[in-house]
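<tokenise_the_fold>
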Amino acid sequence: MPLYRDHAIVLRTQKLGEADRIATLLTRAHGKVRAVAKGVRRTSSRFGARLEPFSHVDLQLATGRTLDVVTQAESIAAYGEGIVGDYARYTAGTVLLETADRLVVEEKEPATQQHLLLAGALRVLSTGEREPSLVLDSFLLRSLAISGYAPSFDDCARCGEPGPHRAFNPAAGGMVCTSCRPPASAMPSAPTVTHLGALLTGDWPTALQADPRTRRESTGLIAAFFTYHQENQLRSLPHLDLTAGGT
């Protein structure tokens, strides 16, 4: 079987037989890959602990007919060590992994930007450098943008009229002007719109200035936008610790 190497983040795993496991991976060069790790559930396995969710690994894989096979695994970063012991980080991290799994649909199609975005978010989450809710909200917006669902927080999402605007509508694509505003649009505060724009662009000095009320309102709008454009809510979203970090 042909061999190839790639950096990968483990999104999820499932048992296979008595000792094997199937890992769903988001790789840097090959996109989403499903691969069998043989004997990984045995205590004598050479790389069992390296193939857990949240792990960033350097893999050698053999191409298979339906599933590839992991033949070597070296750890790049064990992000799980800084995530699984903290409920807020763990629940946010679970949403990160599920989001990446959801948005990268086709297997073996390059998804380098999504891989790099996820690796960066997990690194920051594992170190506690920023509050889990902020890391997650920024990741959701930016991963949606990479997938072609970029919201507009400045110009009108429908007609392009320069902002700022007052109404937000997920179906319309973000902020909309008075003329384009659909019924039942949300009316977020000006600080919330600024905060959303900062999260989308990675403007952390601005994002970190937001007060708890602004962050809560932003989180709700992001969840509504994601759910609309992905049709179904993420399974892990209801388990989030929304009280963490003052949000």
